[in-house]
Design a protein that fits this description.
binds adenosine-5'-diphosphate, alpha/beta, binds magnesium ion, Rossmann fold, four-stranded antiparallel beta sheet
């Protein structure tokens, strides 16, 4: 295990109509590879904001964020996009699949157009990760031909196709029934065991069974409880 993502005194506020909304205050935490982290907290506490900061999707006011020991402070947008594409996989509550593309085509998307791989190699990579999430027999289905749980598994496959070291998931089971939620948590847990850093925001108490570390956002701070 090694530190892959490090928050160093991170603070974040939003300004709306000249009013400053304080969201996160001096967050200090180091996330390691091979671990499953649960981030919990009340609605509006800043969970999605933190996940977006960790994924370089949202700026912060002060402090530093290190990804794989590199300070992200002076990165240009293009460089951030490259890091997101290579090192980070995202999974959201609403799966954000392209409805006009088949499952395997959705999964191929992060491989991009300028990639050195041939179309055949890209397709094979997509089929490999679909197999990993148990959906090799659904590769040719369009999203509307899949259940919600299956669509989320396609989204996980898409997050995995570039073999990122970090997976960030924001309420990935928020739209799913308990049976499908379990399948998703099991897949994410397995990925942590394979060495990835898995960070999952969830309201569901069920996540506590899977987490190596449970983190709470409370009163603008991130604190650790239980786990390990
Ligand atoms: N872009 C934004 N501009 C202004 N306020 C925002 C913005 N995004 C989120 N907020 C506010 O910040 C707080 C935290 O939001 P969020 O991170 O989405 O919380 P959570 O995911 O824990 O429910 C909420 O009060 C929300 O209304
Ligand atoms: Mg949220």
């Amino acid at each position: 295990m090694s530190i892959i993502l490090k928050c160093d005194n991170l603070s974040k506020s939003y300004t709306k109509k000249n009013k400053q909304l304080n969201i996160l205050n001096n967050i200090n935490f180091a996330f390691e590879t091979g671990k499953f982290y649960a981030i919990m907290g009340e609605s509006g506490s800043g969970k999605s904001t933190l996940i977006q900061i960790l994924g370089l999707l949202c700026n912060f006011d002060s402090g530093n964020l290190y990804i794989d020991n590199n300070n992200t402070e002076n990165l240009k947008d293009k460089e951030k996009a490259l890091i997101r594409n290579k090192k980070i996989g995202f999974v959201f509550q609403s799966f954000y699949l392209n409805p006009l593309l088949k499952a395997f085509e959705n999964v191929m998307l992060p491989l991009g157009v300028n990639c050195k791989l041939s179309d055949k190699e890209k397709k094979n990579k997509a089929l490999d990760v679909l197999k990993q999430v148990g959906l090799d027999d659904r590769a040719n289905h369009f999203p509307f031909e899949l259940s919600g749980g299956e669509q989320q598994r396609v989204a996980i496959a898409r997050a995995l196709v570039n073999d990122p070291c970090i997976i960030l998931a924001d309420e990935p089971t928020g739209s799913l029934d308990p049976k499908n939620a379990k399948i998703i948590f099991d897949i994410l847990k397995d990925l942590a065991k394979q060495g990835k850093c898995i960070i999952v925001v969830s309201h569901s108490d069920d996540i506590k069974k899977y987490a190596d570390e449970i983190l709470y956002i409370n009163n603008h701070s991130l604190t650790k409880k239980g786990g390990e």
